[in-house]
Design goal:
Length: 292
Amino acid sequence: MTLYIKGLAVPTSLALSKEELDKLKQRILQSNMKRVQPKSTYEALRVSDGAIQLIIYKSGKVVHNDSPDSRKLLDDVLSAEMAYDYLIGTDEVGKGEWYGPLVVACVALRPKQIVDIRGLGVRDSKELERSRLMKLAQELSRISFTRDLLTLMPEKYNQLYKEFSFEKKTLNDLLAWAHASVIRRVLAELGERRVKILIDKFDVEKTELRLLTTAHVSDRTPNVEIIQTASGDTEIPVSVASILAKNEFEGRVAELERKFGVRLRGAKPDTVSREILPYVAKTHFKNVAAVD
C-alpha cells in the first residue's frame, strides 16, 4: 500500500486496539476530514485531507503518511495502560529454522514508551522486510529500556534439546524454560514494580510451570499479571522483543556463514558438510537428521 504527498511516498503503519480504532473513526467523522472511496473490501476508511493521508483497515491496522498532522491525530487516540509501571513482552526467533540459533528476547517498556514506539511502525518481525527490520532495530537500540536476550547457538541448543529429551520433555518445555529465564532476569532488574507480562501463547501449562519454577512468578504473584495470548504479536512489547530477537538471529547466522564458509539462508542441510552440521544446525530437525 503506497500513499503520496506532493509526489513523495512515505508510508508507515501501526496496529490499533478496537477502542482506539473507534476513537479514531469518531475524530475523523467529527472533524469532517475529507474521505475518499476505499479501494478494497479490507479497508474501513480512507482519508485524504491535506497533510493527513491515512487508510484504516478493518483489522485495526492503520497506514499513514507519517506527516506531523497525521502523527498528532494518531497520538491523540493512542491509549496507554497506566495501571502498570511496566509492560513486559517476550518472543522467540529461530524455532522453525533448521539452521542458526534459537533467540529469545524480553523487553520491559513503560506505558508512555509504548505509545512513542508504536509511532515508529513497530510490528511483528515476520511482517518486516530485512532492511526495515534492521533500521527499526537500530532505532530501538537508541531508546533506553530494560531488555534481555538469550541466544542458544546450535551447539548449545543441541545439547539442551538432548537433555530435555532425555527427561521426556519437548521443544515446548525448552521454549518455556527460555522465556521464563529472560523474564526472571528482567524482573530482577526492575525490582518491585507493578508489571504486566505478555507472552505469545505456545503452551500455556508448561509456560506457567516454568514461570513459577524458574522466574518465581505466577498470575497470583502480587504486582504481576501474566497474559498468554494467541495475538501476542500485535502487542508492542512482544513486537519489540520479536524485532530484537530477529535482528540477533540474522547477525548470528551471518557469523556462522563467515566462520564455516557455508550458505545457510535458503539452503538445504544436505548442502552442508556433515562434520559442521552440529555447529550450524538444529540436529533434531528431520531434514538435518536425514543427512548421511
